[in-house]
What does this fold into?
Amino acid sequence: MLLLGSLQRQAVRCENLGSPMYAELLRRLVADYEIGGVSADVLAGYDDPPPGSVIGLRLLGAVHGLVLAGEVPELAVFYPSVGGVWDPVLGWEAFERVLESRAGEVRALLTQPPQTNEVRRSAALYGGLLQLVWDVRLPVRLFEMGASAWLNLRADHFRYVVDGESYGAVDSPVVIEDAWSGRKLDPVALRITERGGCDIAPVNPLSAEGARTLTSYVWADMAERLERLRAALEVARQVPADVRRADAVSFVRGLELVPGQVTVLWHSIMWQYLTDEDRAAVDAHLAELGEQADESAPLARLRFEPGAEPPYEFLVELEIWPGGGRRVLGRIEDHGQDLVWSFPSESGSN
Ligand SMILES: C[S@@+](CC[C@H](N)C(=O)[O-])C[C@H]1O[C@@H](n2cnc3c(N)ncnc32)[C@H](O)[C@@H]1O
It folds into this structure.
């Protein structure tokens, strides 16, 4: 059955990324499902979920949301995100009881894709902008499609630590340790004059509900990610960004160039959600806008997405108009880990 394979794969992934608690919960969900336990009822109808729908993470996010809302104190005592201590045996028993008593609410949340606005991904954005500004020497108008809670639009307000050296805002509460390796980035003054974006299902990071939704999709025993998210929410309260509910195609269609500034479209881990038609439309709009670009009003596209060909590794790529032509700036893992800047001679693969 596809569901069980997907839960098992997700368990391995949680283990590898540093969440033994979620790995354990997912494995116990599989065992429980196989004997027709409560998870078989909660997950009924999801036997063959579409690829990438990460049903296990939706379920864990739904339960984490109840914990964060203070609705299941008997389970919260096992959740490190709210000061509890994880116990694989007692924790699972409490989890199982919550699935039994709150099955309706959990099932309702399974229909929603996880909203993971991963702050660590901003290392790719920040480093990519440094490389862009090194080339164009202009202030930046920064726009993001699929911005989720638009936390990463404040990338220049975070601190990035690389070999003991800091980049970005040195007094920021958001600290990204071991932000990258590889090619040393040239120091350059980065000034962002405008921040905007779109998402088809934006989460407002300034509301209590939005902050809770975002937190619920961070794995509950990953203290560093939780801390980074809390700090990014604090920065979001201080640095405004204009994000609206819109789909990527209409958003890109509305972009304009401004003389004396470089207009940047950034996107991370969202391309896979667009239809082929929408991807073609975004590419066509950008190419059209690129035709209008000149040295005084350039356009750039900075992306952090999987490459189009095997081994489908995640790449950070930059394209600048006038000129066009895509350059690979670096390689990275999907949550923003292990970012390695490469050498300028490399070119894009797709
Ligand atoms: C995996 S999240 C990534 C969020 C953010 N870019 C990041 O890296 O943390 C993908 C986001 O794309 C958004 N999305 C999916 N399809 C979209 C579309 N057609 N137009 C705009 N946003 C879309 C989703 O709502 C979600 O917020």
